[in-house]
Amino acid sequence: MKSLSPDFQAHLDSGATTLCHCWRLVRPDGLTLGFTDHDEDVSFGGTTFEAVAAISASAIESSTGLAVDNLDVVGALSSDRLSEEDLAAGRFDDAVVEIWRVNWADTAQRVLMRKGNLGEVSRSGSAFRAEIRGLAHKLNQPVGRIYQFTCDAVLGDARCGVDLASAAFHGTGTITAMPSARSVEIAGLDDFASGWFDRGVLTATDGVNQGLSFEVRGHRRTATGTLIEFWQSTPRVFDTGDAVAVTAGCDKTVGTCRAKFANILNFRGFPLMPGNDFVTSYPRRGEGHSGGSLQ
Prior knowledge:
By secondary structure, this protein is mainly beta.
């Protein structure tokens, strides 16, 4: 049940309304954007909602209980503040979304219809479709530790304890070439052996990709410098001279934790847990023995 102000209720009861939808998006980096299906910009709450006629939303449905209520927003990339590159780069991933029903003639008369987070975004040419997930979707996220062979800590976090800012695990350099959409050549990382940054993270510290981080698939030394390969294509092409920072990666095994990071005391896996071969094993008579034995 929505609580409406007396003036807004009277406006709805009048039979002749001046209503529009407004969407407020707050990205994880703090940038706030506003859009409306009205034919003019609308402002309230410190946000200007840009008039974008090419955006529409599916019906808003709510249910009792803890079921996740979703809806889709469909539109065209017609705003300068909503670009395909930013969507592809993940800048809008899990952005907070507010959907308002507003009297554009008197914006004090408004009601918050739904609040949630931006989910899956699909693109086709200049059009996009974005899923908005209700707040209950947070309850579907796994919480707690995982019982497994490998470590479940994030490299460098409080549970891991490795200092990724140290010179041994952190390097900086500049882009010298971009052989493909998923690889770059870097100068300045000659002190690191091939494979040191496998499964690590490269972060652009300036240029068109500034602030974006990319997971490293492979790292090897070449005759001209260092080649870094990513798992996915970058949203924008790096320019020669762009500065980057790279941190070492971890395959989460006990051997790497001991040999590469000297951090075995903080290893968060269970390397001695029995595996499937133990579950399916059975007593067998050993060859060359008179008695039976478990193998």
